[in-house]
Amino acid sequence: xxxxxxxxxxxxxxxxxxxxxxxxxxxxxxxxxxxxxxxxxxxxxxxxxxxxxxxxxxxxxxxxxxxxxxxxxxxxxxxxxxxxxxxxxxxxxxxxxxxxxxxxxxxxxxxxxxxxxxxxxxxxxxxxxxxxxxxxxxxxxxxxxxxxxxxxxxxxxxxxxx
Length: 162
Known about the structure:
Shape: rod-shaped
Distance between the termini: 117 Å
Number of helices: 2
Helix content: 25-40%
Number of strands: 7
């Protein structure tokens, strides 16, 4: 297959390590090496059953959304893609989580709480403004009623010429 990145290629020689200019050329042996992914380090690692992920279907370049159906004993995963396709034995390097990290989830919760607090403060401010308007309208109505009564009393107090 053409266009496969070097970090996705492993030797079939079974773990023999050769030293060459201070570098080790061997297949990945631990989880950190096996899950090195596409180099961006984001969202790649150990996944759990039911986790929402994006995986490279048959190792292609594009990630497709899905869920981890099973975690296999050999370190691979079975993926159920959102479009109905299924794939078995997908290496962790071809998968990235689409669920937020704990830090991202905490930031999302904090942002949501701040937005909710702002909305509540705005609602309180609107309620207070409406209450002030109602009090002003009540005061204006009382003043109008007082003026009407005063005018009635004044009219009644004038002698009638007739």
